[in-house]
C-alpha cells in the first residue's frame, strides 16, 4: 500500500497562533516511510468504530466533505488537506489546546475501494540529547522532538459506508486541552451502532441495572448481584448470537424482573438517544473489554474482600450477636 503524506503546522487561534500550510507532499525515504506508517497505524488499539454525522445534511460536515473528495479524486489530496487543516484550526476554541503538526495521509491500494485516509496530530514534545563529534571533542546538545511511539490524536477513515458517514477508527491520547475538540468539534463523529456497540452497551446497561436499579426494587444480596453479573458474562462468552428474550429468561427467570430490566433499557436508550438491538452477533472484543468492569468481589468494611469464582451455594450469609458474617465451604486450602 502506497502512502502519500502532507503535514501542516496548526497553532491555537485563541492564543494568537497561526498556521503554516505546506505546498507539497513530504518526500520520504523508504525507512522514514515505514517508521511513519508504523506510528500512524499502531495508534488504533480498539475495535470501536465511528462515523461522520451532521446536525443537518451529512454533506455539511467539513471533514466528511473533504474526505469524500479525496476518495473520489486523489488528485485533490493537496487542496483538501488544506481544507482539513483550516477546519482543525477553526475548531480550537479553548486556550489549553496545544498546537502541533497535522498529518494528512492517503493510503493508496491497488483497488480504490480499499483506500484509506488518515488524519493525525502531534502535540507533545519530548526532550532528546543530540551528539556530535568534531575536532576530537564530543558535543552534546539538548533538543525537542516528537516520539515515534505514540501519536496524540488520530483518525483513520475507510472507503466504505459513504452514505452513512464512512467507517472510522479514532483515538485521542491527549485530552488535557479539551475532551470535545478532536471527536466532536473537529471530526464531528459518533460511535457506529454495530455489533461492537450493541455488545458493549447491552452489557454496561445490564451492569448498571444489577448494581443500581435491582436493589431498589427487590431484596437481593451482594452474592445475588455477583451471580447475575457472572451469569451474563457466561452467556456472552458461550453464545455467538444475542437474543434479548433468551438472555433475560436464562438470567432472571422471574417475569417481573425481566419487565423491570426491559423498562430500564428503554429509559437508557431514550436518555442516551441510542438504540440497542435485541438481536445481534456478539462481539468478543467488546466482551473482553467490558469483562474488566464486572467485579466478582464483595467488600466487607475495610477488613475483608470475598472474591467469588464458583458456586454461590458454598457461601452463606448470617447475623449473630457479634454482627453480620459470611460462612464459606471449601474442600482444601491452597
Give a topology summary:
Elements: E1 2-10, E2 19-20, H1 30-41, E3 50-52, H2 62-72, H3 77-91, E4 100-108, E5 116-122, E6 126-134, E7 137-145, E8 153-158, E9 167-172, H4 181-187, E10 189-191, H5 195-217, H6 222-238, E11 241-243, H7 244-251, H8 255-272, E12 279-281, H9 284-291, E13 297-300, E14 304-307, E15 315-320, E16 323-328
Helix pairs in contact: 2-3, 3-4, 5-6, 5-8, 5-9
What's the story with the biggest beta sheet?
6 strands, antiparallel
- The average pLDDT score comes to 89
Unreliably modeled segments: none
Number of strands: 16
**Strand content of the residues, in percent?**
25-35%
Can you count the helices? 9
Shape: globular
Radius of gyration over alpha carbons? 26 Å
| Structural class by sheet pairing and helices | alpha+beta
Name the strands of the widest sheet in spatial order: 2-1-4-5-8-9
Q: What is the chain-wise order of helices and strands?
A: EEHEHHEEEEEEHEHHEHHEHEEEE
Helix content: 25-40%
Amino acid at each position: 500500500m502506497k502512502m502519500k503524506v502532507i503535514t501542516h503546522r496548526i497553532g491555537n487561534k485563541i492564543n494568537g497562533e497561526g498556521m503554516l500550510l505546506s505546498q507539497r507532499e513530504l518526500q520520504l525515504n523508504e525507512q522514514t516511510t515505514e517508521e511513519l506508517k508504523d506510528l500512524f497505524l499502531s495508534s488504533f488499539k480498539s475495535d470501536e468504530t465511528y462515523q461522520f454525522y451532521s446536525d443537518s445534511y451529512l454533506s455539511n460536515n467539513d471533514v466528511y466533505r473533504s474526505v469524500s473528495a479525496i476518495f473520489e479524486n486523489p488528485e485533490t489530496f493537496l487542496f483538501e488537506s488544506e481544507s482539513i487543516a483550516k477546519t482543525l484550526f477553526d475548531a480550537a476554541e479553548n486556550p489549553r489546546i496545544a498546537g502541533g503538526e497535522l498529518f494528512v495521509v492517503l493510503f493508496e491500494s491497488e483497488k480504490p475501494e480499499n483506500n484509506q485516509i488518515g488524519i493525525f496530530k502531534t502535540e507533545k514534545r519530548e526532550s532528546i540529547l543530540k551528539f556530535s563529534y568534531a575536532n576530537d571533542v564530543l558535543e552534546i546538545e539538548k533538543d525537542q522532538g516528537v516520539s515515534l511511539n505514540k501519536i496524540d490524536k488520530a483518525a483513520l477513515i475507510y472507503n466504505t459506508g459513504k452514505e452513512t458517514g464512512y467507517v472510522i477508527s479514532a483515538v485521542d491520547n491527549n485530552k488535557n486541552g479539551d475532551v470535545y475538540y478532536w471527536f466532536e468539534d473537529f471530526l464531528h463523529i459518533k460511535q457506529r451502532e454495530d455489533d461492537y456497540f450493541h455488545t458493549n452497551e447491552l452489557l454496561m446497561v445490564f451492569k448498571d441495572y444489577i448494581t443500581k436499579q435491582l436493589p431498589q426494587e427487590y431484596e437481593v444480596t451482594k452474592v445475588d448481584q455477583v451471580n447475575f453479573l457472572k451469569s451474563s458474562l457466561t452467556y456472552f462468552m458461550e453464545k455467538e448470537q444475542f437474543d434479548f428474550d433468551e438472555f433475560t429468561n436464562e438470567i432472571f427467570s422471574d417475569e417481573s424482573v425481566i419487565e423491570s430490566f426491559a423498562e430500564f433499557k428503554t429509559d437508557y436508550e431514550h436518555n442516551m438517544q441510542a438504540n440497542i438491538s435485541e438481536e445481534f452477533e456478539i462481539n468478543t472484543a467488546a466482551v473482553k473489554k467490558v469483562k474488566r468492569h464486572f467485579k466478582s468481589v464483595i467488600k466487607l468494611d475495610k477488613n475483608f474482600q470475598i472474591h467469588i469464582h464458583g458456586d454461590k451455594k458454598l457461601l452463606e450469609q448470617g447475623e449473630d450477636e457479634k454482627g453480620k458474617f459470611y460462612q464459606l465451604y471449601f474442600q482444601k486450602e491452597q
